[in-house]
DNA sequence: CGCCAGGCTTCTA
DNA sequence: TAGAAGCATGGC
């Protein structure tokens, strides 16, 4: 099953034979920061303003307390980028990377949350970033059943660096506040970023203090649904140098961000130098 | 203890 | 205009 379908069973929504959905590889690989593993094969997180517990049971994946309507309205778009992965396998190197960890999925998160999360991820590690974000949500996020939503730009824009001190964001605090203000003042519009030519979308995000190419690209890919956007970190630079000196195949460019996810993971696991 | 984190801004030649 | 230095902080 490469695109998601399932059925409501009792109180839950069940994805049948969801072999290509590795929860740990997807939720704990540094693309999202609000999921925590609660049991062997079970994760809990707040995304899109809602608490979700999701767990694997044999070949199935169960979304606890989710009905059909909510699945299609909220979670399918969040978890599912469709059949893009299969076509990548036309290239031998891409096939190798995809088959190495076929259960990784690229998430389509909330745009603002992704932007803010990747601003905070800079020169940081995943574990600490999660802690900082959790604290930020408790500090300024709206209370929802089971925890706190990610704070809206409006709620952050009226705070100061001192207000954010408990989250221990360090030098990133001022960046977050500028990003929040940029959205409130409509200097930056993420809906517009979804439609603009890629270079213009990046340029717009990079006007935010503390947002460079990498953070802009991550926000676009993981939060704005720009699967054509390829974040270039140290690992991807090595991948391109070693395996794609002339760039990704032309036909793969429009889904380059998806390719990136598999190549990144593969390169890192191989310890590519 | 040091070293490092899926960078960015600022300073320097 | 490229390349190096500082940045805040805590996980390991």
Short structural summary:
The protein is of the alpha+beta class. It is 45% helix and 13% strand. The structure holds a DNA duplex (13 and 12 nucleotides).
**What Rg, in angstroms, do the CA atoms define?**
18 Å
Strand order of the largest sheet: 1-2-6-5-4-3
Structural class: alpha+beta
Q: What's the CATH first level of the domain at 6-80?
A: Alpha Beta
What is the subunit organization of this protein?
A: single chain
Helicity, as a percent range: 40-55%
Overall morphology: globular
- Would you identify the CATH architecture of the domain at 6-80? 2-Layer Sandwich
Mind sketching the topology for me?
Layout: E1 6-9, E2 12-15, H1 23-27, E3 35-39, E4 42-47, E5 50-57, E6 60-63, H2 68-79, H3 84-88, H4 92-100, H5 111-120, H6 126-140, E7 143-144, E8 147-148, H7 153-157, H8 173-184, H9 190-195, H10 198-205, H11 213-223, H12 234-243, H13 256-270
The protein binds a DNA duplex (13 and 12 nucleotides) through residues 30-31, 118-119, 121-129, 131-132, 168-173, 175, 209-215, 218, 231-236, 264, 268.
């Amino acid at each position: 099953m490469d695109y998601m379908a399932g059925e409501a069973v009792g109180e839950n929504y069940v994805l049948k034979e969801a072999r290509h959905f590795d929860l740990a590889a997807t939720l704990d690989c540094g693309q999202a920061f609000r999921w925590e593993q609660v049991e062997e094969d079970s994760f809990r997180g707040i995304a899109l303003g809602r608490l979700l517990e999701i767990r694997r049971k044999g070949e199935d994946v169960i979304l606890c307390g989710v009905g059909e309507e909510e699945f299609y309205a909220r979670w399918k778009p969040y978890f599912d980028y469709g059949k893009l992965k299969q076509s990548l396998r036309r290239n031998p190197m891409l096939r190798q990377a995809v088959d190495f960890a076929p259960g990784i999925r690229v998430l389509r998160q909330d745009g603002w949350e992704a932007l803010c999360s990747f601003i905070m991820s800079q020169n940081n590690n995943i574990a600490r970033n999660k802690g900082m974000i959790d604290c930020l949500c408790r500090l300024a996020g709206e209370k929802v059943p089971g925890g706190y939503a990610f704070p809206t730009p409006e709620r952050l824009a009226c705070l100061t660096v001192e207000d954010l001190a408990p989250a221990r964001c360090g030098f990133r605090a001022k960046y977050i506040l500028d990003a929040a203000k940029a959205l409130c003042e409509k200097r930056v519009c993420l809906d517009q970023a979804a439609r603009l030519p890629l270079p213009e979308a990046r340029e717009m995000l990079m006007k935010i203090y503390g947002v460079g190419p990498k953070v802009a690209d991550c926000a676009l890919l993981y939060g704005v649904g720009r699967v054509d956007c390829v974040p270039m970190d140290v690992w991807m630079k090595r991948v391109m140098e070693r395996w794609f000196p002339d760039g990704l195949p032309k036909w793969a460019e429009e889904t380059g961000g998806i390719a990136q996810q598999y190549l990144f993971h593969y390169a890192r696991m191989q310890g590519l130098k």
